[in-house]
Amino acid sequence: MSMMQVEALGKKFGGLNAVEDLSFEIPAGSVYSIIGPNGAGKTTLLNLLTGVYRPSSGRIRFDGQDLSGRAPHEFARHGIARTFQNLQVFFNMSALENVMVGRYLQERCGLASALLRFPRLARAERACREEAAELMRYVGLQDWLTAASDAMPYGALKRLEIARALATKPKLMLLDEPAAGLNPTEALALDDLIGRLAGRGVTVVLVEHNMKLVMGVSDQILVLDYGRKLAEGSAQAVRNDPKVIEAYLGSEIAHGAAYGEDIARAVAVAAEMHR
Amino acid sequence: MLARLASPRTGGLLALAVVIALLPLALSNKYFYDVAILVGLNAIVCIGLNLLIGYAGQISLGHAGFFGLGAYGSAVLASRYGWPPLAALLATTGAVAMLAYVVGRPILRLRGHYLAMATLGLGIIIFMIISTEDKFTGGPDGISVVPFSVAGFALQGERVWYWVVGALLLVAVWLGLNLIESPTGRALRALHSSEVGAEVVGINAAEHKLMVFVVSAVFASVAGSLAAHYSGFVTPSKVTFLHSIELVTMVVFGGLASTFGAVVGAVVLTTLPQLLAAFEDYEMMVFGAVMIGTMIFLPRGVVPSLARLLRPRRAGGAAGKDSLA
Amino acid sequence: MSAQFMQYLLTGITVGAIYALVALGFSIIFNASDVINFAQGEFVMIGGMATMSLIAAGLPYGLAIPLAVAAAALVGLALEKFAVEPARGASVVTLIIITIGASIFLRGLATLVWDKNLHAVRPFTGDAPIAIAGATILPQSLWVIGVTLAIVLALSWFFGRTLLGKAMLATSHNRLAAQLVGINVRMVLFMSFGLSAALGAVAGILIAPITTTSYDVGVMLGLKGFAAAILGGLGSGLGAVVGGIVLGVAETMSAGYVSSAYKDAIAFVIMLAVLFFLPSGLFGKRGGDRV
Question: What is the dotted CATH code of the domain comprising A1-79+170-238?
């Protein structure tokens, strides 16, 4: 059963085809990674899948609904959440409030109720606070429950964004380079978190550069290059696909030039060791 | 119970109520009451404008337009057409809300300078229409306004109006604080910080900006209607670009994202010109210098800057910040 | 072409030339600093009023004009140094309030240095109207159009051929890159204010003999100059000129053929229309940002 179907998706910026004729399906409950060299269009794709960009062509279907061309808040309404590569933390609020904002869709109150502060609201606020605190603990931020967001280190902020995204109770979570800037310990914790998310039944889509993380955690991998699909399949299949190796390391290496084969073998061995 | 009293919100409201209740002891003549009422009315506009500028992060250089529409709407309906003042006020407020809704949609698609210019243009067009359509509005000379009466009881005289405006100011502050501390208020602050971040958690940015714009227009319109009935006449002089700027300056001076800051801003910058009346020749220069100086030295405004000074700095990453007063 | 149409056209081009000069001033400062200088209109006022005083004191135009322009330029430099520079990096709202505060301050200063009255200034070369195609035009209007044309040509030479001009252009395209190649961006900003002030002052001097001058003549001219800059596209020199002329002609034509009561409103209606339907204006940069 697929959660999201992308058909012939394309995005042009002026004359540049950032994403071209992309079709793939994301199975429900899986961990699906999108990789590719720099400039391959990964972040553009992520923005398309969350409504931040409108497609120039193609369709995006999610859970039976056609969401192509809708606004980001509508994508969120349908159960799609995301984090950002360049953090979009709300620095004018505390950490807890950031996560509480994530609960907006469940908390929505009318203007009159907000202005007149109906008693129901006060109770709902308390519940919201508790749920937000719970989510912060879930992602490992129990030491930052009373912190101001602008007092937190980078690694914690990345987890804060994940907590905020989780607060929307999503069916699908897209993480944009969550491991960027994390040290190996933090990356391991992230690995564990992604596993737990998948365990909760949330479909996770990962855009990442950290190959160790990607190979270790993914059920399926999509490889992009110049905005087009280069390869798709299991971690094993993708790792050994010569087209993929060529895109990352250059054609000499992929097609076995003198030292090329040695490097390819070394890469394969290293991947094995770090499983 | 005592803990709740100590919260910035309830404590602030109480303090304001006490000030309003005790102030008449210091007001010795009509002139001072006049200034106090003017301050109160400006404060009501500023609370709404602060929601727009400080919380939602937008800007309006044309809010005197909504104030003027409120004033003239009430004036024309009540005085020219003989409507009961309360009905005139409600009808005018409704009309202004509708105008803000219709005009707000395209205007709020703009950002930064463009948004500023669009609101500026709107304010000026409203001013010009009011000044030109003298058959309705009396043109540059304005028209006189009947007193505000409800069920035969007329509000006359500065003492009565002082209590009316004081009470309404408390209501306005209460409404403002409620909105800010609700999920909607959080959504607004989120929007201000990162629009895309807010959108992806399901917050419809355009709708929220429009809502705040309409709410702030309503605050301004109601204040305008009251001002018209209190003064007994309306002229275009309160609908000018300069008045819009004064309002924005009050909000920014007092403190963005601070309801009490908006009140403080209104107090200081309404009384300042009165104090400077003695130095009439220097009034404009001083006002301009105050605007520049505040923005350079106290860019966050008076109340937040003071709050920072008074809040003890704590080491490490555990500094807590609860609600914003 | 009817004589009336020609009349409106000529008047419109004259007034449009002034708007163009004011709009150019905005664009230059906006390009250097992303600041909308609400005090631009005050430079216009200073130009006109200073010239008026100097002429009244007996100086010939040949001396009065350069002195007035220099005075305005000095005010512009002072504005940058004391009001804009201390607030580098501040938000849009803050900068808007600062420049508006500056404009109020300058107007207050003007009432002290001069007064609140209207002042007439004699035209450069006499006031016998000249007949063109059935319409009449004042010699001063020819000065307005001619000088504006000369200035536009001079500015294109300046930005295209001189080092300072090219540095300013580079800064407007990409401040960081300009800094990295060694351009003193702060000096560029400083000079931009001086240049814009000079442009504004010239506009004020040119128009004063036609419309009289006073301490608050800059308010409307400044605002309409914005409208012209927005119509043409904020930041575009060509846009400023075209926007100015188009606005001037549109204003005069609507006042003549439609309603003269709302003459002053036309500029703002046009501005709102542009902001709603084509915010980048006729020649401004188009397209959305990449996230």
Answer: 3.40.50.300
